[in-house]
Hints:
Blueprint: H1 3-22, H2 29-57, H3 62-80, H4 92-100, H5 104-110
Amino acid sequence: MLHAYWIVIIAHFAIQIGCFLFLDYDRTPTDFLMNVLFWPTAVSSSCILFASWVDRRFSSYSFYTMSIASTVIAWTIIHVNYDIRIILAICLLPIFASVLFFSKRESGLSF
Length: 111
């Protein structure tokens, strides 16, 4: 189930490299590597690894950790791409997932 999160991280990594190579970018290469590629990818990957560990050890809490991991991934993508206005719609994904499963408790957690 967490494979989709890895696909999101890999796609975001590849898209950011493409943006740096083919678009005008206002950051230095070192700043780009550290603040756009390394740290967001490391934070997102560690959240996914933690969520997969919780999924194996404590399966009753797996939905909560997946919701938290998806929120952290969304916020790292938003933080890196702050100049794109529509990207804030990613914040609605945990709320949508909670409503999809008809759980009031998870809806409160997603806020």
